[in-house]
Amino acid sequence: MTNELSMKNITKNFGAFQALNKVDVTVQKGEIHALLGANGAGKSTLMKILCGAYDEYEGKIYKDGEEISISSPKEAKSHGIGIVHQEVDVALIPSLSVAENIVLDVQASNKSKTFVNWKSIYKKAEEALSLLGSSLSVKKNVVDLTLSEKQQVLIARAIVQNVDYLILDEPTAPLSVEETKQLFSVMRELKKSGVGIIYISHRLQEVVDICDRLTVLKDGRYVATKETSHTSIEDVITLMLGTSSVKQWVKKSVEIGNELLHVEALSLPGRLSNISFHVKEGEVVGIAGLVGAGKTELCRSLFGLEQYVSGSVRLKGKKLKLNKQPYYYIAQGLSLVPEERRKEGIFVHESIADNLVLPSLSRFTNYSFLKRGKIKEKAQKTTGQVGVKSHS
């Protein structure tokens, strides 16, 4: 009897678009296994099949040598498979407390209990969070949490469930360095207890540091499975990009031009104080700091989502008005990709095309009528430029 979880010949189509083509992945108990690939490689689709989010696919799934059926999240959980989603809001109920969200699945499956034991719920939640080194209040509502705190709640939920296999989809994306170290400590403890962990990340140094093996996908196909101890980061990039030389992917230096954006003494009560910086043409400026340092608030302030009380912002030499609505700053040439993209950045029930042109809709209308042909043309061009893969 083998102690492993295997996906064999997994194929998934979305209409005419083939997202996965006969992909094989095997994860052993007590192993941290990285699933790698460039955007659009099929990682998330494969994991959505494993956790029951997609029920129509070809191929077979085996646990400990026996074929199992997974056609819903409930079935996945019954087989001891849990997931911590990258898009945390799809798995959390904002109106409930931290404790309620952590024990949600356990409570829902406990049909023999008529009354809720709040003392037990709070204790379980606190114990799970303590393993993460978190001091988060279990009575706090999820709607009031930061992105990194929501991530902690989801990981704590997985700990409470006592899963056999745990999928972590980009778990360190919203975490600070210290929070990441604590997460790795928890992962190592779960590994010692026999839990198999599937770890998805674009941070390749993390993969080398924490994972035992790695599997690489490219364009929906299986490429290779390697021991991380015998695989360099350059080897991984070569497998992901399908080129024998990484050097050709390194961009040449760009000539820095004139000043574009100038921020002077921007202040936001209780969060930002006297922030000044500038950005020139062809320049990428990094804003760094620990969780809670004000990075997000700074970006939101520049886009009109936070009301700062003092300071000045100039764009191409023109002084912008303070505390206007986002549409004003869009018209001036500013754009924002928010931290919680699914929650604040897109309309999930609208098409890709409509989402792409929405901020500049006036360019695609004629006497209040939408120019659908131009919208489609623009969407096709833009998705091609940034590598969006979809069946339409």
Topology:
Layout (H helix, E strand, L loop, with lengths): L3 E11 L2 E12 L3 E5 L6 H8 L7 E6 L2 E3 L4 H6 L2 E4 L13 H5 L1 H6 L8 H14 L15 H15 L3 E5 L7 H16 L3 E5 L3 H7 L2 E6 L2 E7 L5 H9 L17 E10 L3 E9 L14 H8 L7 E6 L2 E2 L6 H7 L8 H4 L7 H6 L7 E2 L2 E2 L1 H15 L6
Parallel strand pairs: 3-8, 3-9, 6-7, 7-8
Antiparallel strand pairs: 1-2, 1-4, 4-5, 9-10, 11-12, 11-13, 13-14, 15-16
List the keywords:
Rossmann fold; single chain; 24% strand; six-stranded mixed beta sheet; four-stranded antiparallel beta sheet; 392 residues
In summary, what is this structure?
The protein has 392 residues and is of the alpha/beta class.
Number of domains: 3
Helix content: 25-40%
Q: Give the number of helices.
A: 14
What is the CATH-assigned architecture of the largest domain? 3-Layer(aba) Sandwich
Question: What is the overall pLDDT average?
Answer: 89
Which range does the strand content fall in?
Answer: 15-25%
What can you see in these coordinates?
By secondary structure, the chain is α/β, with parallel strands linked by helices. The protein folds into 3 domains: about 5-250, P-loop containing nucleotide triphosphate hydrolases (Rossmann fold, 3-Layer(aba) Sandwich), CATH 3.40.50.300; about 250-340, Rossmann fold (3-Layer(aba) Sandwich); about 345-390, no CATH class. Helices cover about 30% and strands about 25% of the residues. The protein contains 14 helices and 16 strands. The protein has helices at about 45-50, 75-80, 100, 105-110, 120-130, 145-160, 175-190, 205-210, 235-240, 295-300, 325-330, 340-345, 350-355, 370-385; strands at about 5-15, 15-30, 30-35, 60-65, 65-70, 80-85, 165-170, 195-200, 215-220, 220-225, 260-270, 270-280, 310-315, 320, 365, 370. A 6-stranded mixed beta sheet has the order 6-7-8-3-9-10, with helices on both faces. Strands 2-1-4-5 form a 4-stranded antiparallel beta sheet, covered by helices on one side. Strands 12-11-13-14 form a 4-stranded antiparallel beta sheet, with helices on one face. A hairpin with a 3-residue loop joins strand 11 and strand 12. Helix 5 crosses helix 6. It is globular and about 65 Å long. The two termini are about 45 Å apart.
